[in-house]
Each structure stands twice: as structure tokens, then as C-alpha cells.
Design brief:
- The complex is a heterodimer of chains A (98) and B (302).
- By secondary structure, chain A is mostly helical.
- Chain A contains four helices and three strands.
- With 302 residues, chain B is of the alpha+beta class.
- In chain B, the strands form four sheets. Chain B has a four-stranded mixed sheet. Chain B has a three-stranded mixed sheet with strand order 1-5-4, with no helix packed on it. A two-stranded antiparallel ribbon of chain B has the order 2-3.
- In chain B, helix 2 packs antiparallel against helix 3.
- The chains are: A mainly alpha (98), B alpha+beta (302).
- At the A-B interface, helix 3 and helix 4 of A face helix 2 and strand 6 of B.
Chain lengths: 98, 302
Amino acid sequence: METNNLILIEQFCIHHNIEFSFINALQEFGLIEVIIIEDHKYLENEKIKDVEKMMRLHFELDINMEGIDAISNLLQQIDNLQKELISTQNKLRIYESD
Amino acid sequence: MEFIDYYKILEIPKTASESDIKSAYRKLARKNHPDLNPNDENAKKKFQQINEANEVLSDPEKRKKYDKYGKDWKHAEEFEKANQQNQSQGGGRSQQGSGGFSGDYSGDFSEFFESMYGGNKGSSGRQTKFRGQDINAQLQLELNDVFKTQQQTLTVNGKNIRLTIPAGVENGQVIKISGHGTPGANGGPNGDLYITFTIANHSKFKREGSNLYANVDLDLYTAMLGGEILVDTFDGKVKLKIAPETLGGTKVKLKGKGFPVYKKENEFGDLYITYQIKLPTNLTEKEKELFTELSKIRNNGN
């Protein structure tokens, strides 16, 4: 399997100066998906931004894993609602008078 | 440049202890953190102020200087020199910092701060390498512009980006351009560019997804007796047969004459036409006579 779009977790942890256990904890809470290829653990490049956000919440706002989980769900809900709102606004434009 | 009251920003008295400052900062940071307030410029601005206030008040040296000179901060450097205590605050990050934020958001300290502390920003305690900030941009287009896939060159942060805008982009849709945000810090990757499309519609068509809707006027005689009319579609005209006794409000679907389906080549939505019967006005005497005759044949008009 190609690893072009993946980043080695070990490298990521060194890069950000964080413990591997943090990534493990995120995985245990189902907050991230870890990809294992030939005994090496990777994160998807696309997901790095999310992991970094969780890092900020944890290390800088002292939010624990349960809190990160709740916040992630709520932010996802906000995102979905925003998309729904835009879609509804677009539909309503049909009924707007010229 | 105005004096900034850091105590007021953190909502604490001047007598606040280190733990009071920390606690006030954490509370306000949780409330205004950009990660928890996506797309909220006010929260971001407030967060930067809180961060800056914490940067000063949680560092005993900086706090001392701030408290000592207060509103006379403009002359702080002169006083300092006079006292021969010119201790540079510049340089690397302190490892015993305030626990401030090191992420995408800690930038943009005020001129007041820069003036007093020489632009020494973070003291995060962690030497993190961060990806650059994402940039959110808005692109306004007309509905005509997104009927066909087109290329546009945008200038974002002084750099030209050649962008392919696929046909059928929706109003409010966001497209991500990876790596075109601000450059990463300390070797981190670049942020991404997010473009939100605002599609103005000044056409006669209403749009819902890939379907288009339009009203078409029918004159009374064509509606009654049938005939042919030319109807505008988004990219030309089509001839339509009108059945005799067509009622006002009748809907007709023109398959594949709608808007392009996003990222599906040669696939189009449908065009829905609603007929509106236009009654003749300014009738001549002769017309009135004939309508009167007609009304006698069918006196309730139905």
C-alpha cells in the first residue's frame, strides 16, 4: 500500500513534541483512525489538521478526551447545520420574488 | 496607538494573583478559542487580545514593567534606559512561559504590545512546528459564470493561483485548495485555501441544485387552441408544442435542459417551465362583441 498520503505517527509526535500515548488515546476514543502498514502506524495527511486541533484543545485548553469527543461531535453538527442552512437558503431563493 | 488595559481584558483586578490570571485566562480562552468558534472573526480578535493580555500579565517581568509604566508606556523605554536596566525582552521562547497558545492563532499582537515588548511573541513552552493558517476567501460569480467549467486566476496573499471552477458549483459551496494557505511555522506544512462561492442569479431562471425553474407567458389563443412557442433555456431557445386547452400553472419538464451537475461531465438537470396565461387587455369593440358572444355559449365561463 502506498504511503504517499500518510504521515508516520512517530514522525508526527517528534515534530510536535507530543507523546505517542496522546495519539493512542485519540484512537481509543474513536476520534482518529490509525492506519497500520507493515507494523508502522500512520495518520492520513488529510486528518492532520483535525489532530492538531485536538492537540490544541487538549494541551492548551486542558480539555480531556471526553471533552474533545463532545466538542468534535458538536463542531460536526454545526458544520452539518451550516451546510443544511445554505442548501435551504438556496432552495428558498426559488420562491423569492424578482 | 492606545493604551490597552490587560486587566480589563482578562476581567481581573490589578491585585490578581498568578493563579487568578491563569484561571481567568483559561476561562476566557475556552470561550473564545477559534477552534471552538469557527468562522467567527469577533471571537478570533477577542482571543488574540486575551492571549496578548496573558502573555504580559502571566510573565512577572512583563507584568512588572506594565504595572510600573502603565499609561506612560510610551516613555517606558526612556525610563528603562535612564535606569540603565535595559534588559532586552527579545529572543527565543521562554520555557517557563505563560502556557499561551502556540497554534495558528497567537499572531497579530497589538502595536501597543510590540512597542512595549519589542515584538517578542509567544512563550508557549512547547517548540511546536505548526502548519500554516488556513485562508478563507470568497469568490463572487454570476450564475452564467458557472454554467461552464472555467479557469480563473485569483490573487491570494500576493500569490497568483490558477483555479479551475467546475461547472455547476453551488451558491455557498466551499472548495479547498490544499497547500495554498499561509506558510507553516518552523518547517510545518502550509495551510489550505478555502474558497466560498457566492453565486448571484440575475437570470430569469430559479435554480435548485441542477434543476432550473422558469415561468413562461402564454397568450390566451395559444393556450385555448394550441400551437408552438419558442422558450428560452439557459443556453439557447427550444421550440415547444402547446396542447389545446392548456391551463395556467401547467408545468412542463424539459429533460436535460437544466444546469450542469457538479463534477459530472455532460450531465445536466432539468428545466421546469410553468405556463402563465396572459389575458388580452385594451379590448376593441369588436373583441368585446365576440367575447360576449362566447360568454353566451358558455355562460358560467368554465
